[in-house]
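USER: Please consider what follows.
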Amino acid sequence: MKLLKKEFRLCLHPTAPLFLALAAMVLIPNYPYAVSFFYLTLGVFFICLTGRENHDAAFTSALPVNRKQIVEGRMLLVCCLEALDLLAVGLMLWVKGLIGFTPNEAGMDANIALLGEGLIVFGLFNLVFFPRWYKDINKVGVPFLVGSAVVFVYILLAIISTYAVPFVRDCLDTQDPAFLKEKLLFVGAALLFFAAATWLSARLSVKRFEQVDLQL
């Protein structure tokens, strides 16, 4: 918990909380709402980039903690931000419901299944970005580009599925509370994927970070 406090107080880039406000993109008509989750990953990139410039890894290593705890502290910070983003999107879904439902021609409708898409986006990004970044903490750009590419490929496939995959088109991409059971099962499965992907990401990241020379 002390490392998490340090991460929030010393490492949190100001753009990350600002990107949480982009959950309001759910209110935009005919927009690929899953893209709103990408902006938080951009905030994660700025956190890691600023940490590199400030030699955060060397500073944290001088504290009475091991490298496993350093990785866990950073990833816990990111998971907290991802959870807040999902909460913000959920709030915007409620607001959207009050304003009035309109079908989305650019992907998933503004419904609870969208949270499942967000969990998959975050799980994929965590799994791709962190192990690559912790292999060489001085190189942030390439891991982020690879992570972003994977995320946008998924978003594209998710948009196509709302037209081409019957289960997505007829059950998930509908107005709440229709097919609520199916949507909740999708969100539950996405949550399991997020947890497994993030856990695997942490294990790989620790293994690679332990081999990094921190003589920055």
Notes: The CA atoms of residues 116 and 188 lie 8 Å apart. The chain has one domain: 2-209. The longest helix spans residues 67-99. The mean pLDDT is 93.
